[in-house]
Specification:
Length: 86
């Protein structure tokens, strides 16, 4: 299973109404953290009731904590677009 699939699997625990995970690694070729083969730079669009009432920072912290193993394993950058469903 690739990193994209692992990210999707981890974030499905939030029962999202919307979940999009995009590998944007190729757009960062030659930049810090990029490596051959990609899977270093991702964008996540997530809408879930679990985020209702949370600030943007709290949503980002929750997602970053859920993906801590991915960051430890080579995920360099994660652009997050998260919001509640309310």
């Amino acid at each position: 299973m690739g990193r994209k699939e692992r990210i999707e699997q981890a974030l499905r625990a939030l029962s999202p109404a919307e979940l999009v995970v995009l590998d944007e690694s190729e757009q960062h070729r030659g930049h810090g953290g990029w490596r051959e083969g990609g899977e270093t730079h991702f964008r996540v669009r997530l809408r879930a009731a679990a985020f209702d009432g949370l600030s943007r920072v709290e949503c980002h912290r929750r997602i970053n904590a859920m993906l801590a193993d991915e960051f430890a394993g080579g995920l360099h950058a994660l652009a997050i677009e998260a919001r509640g469903t309310a």
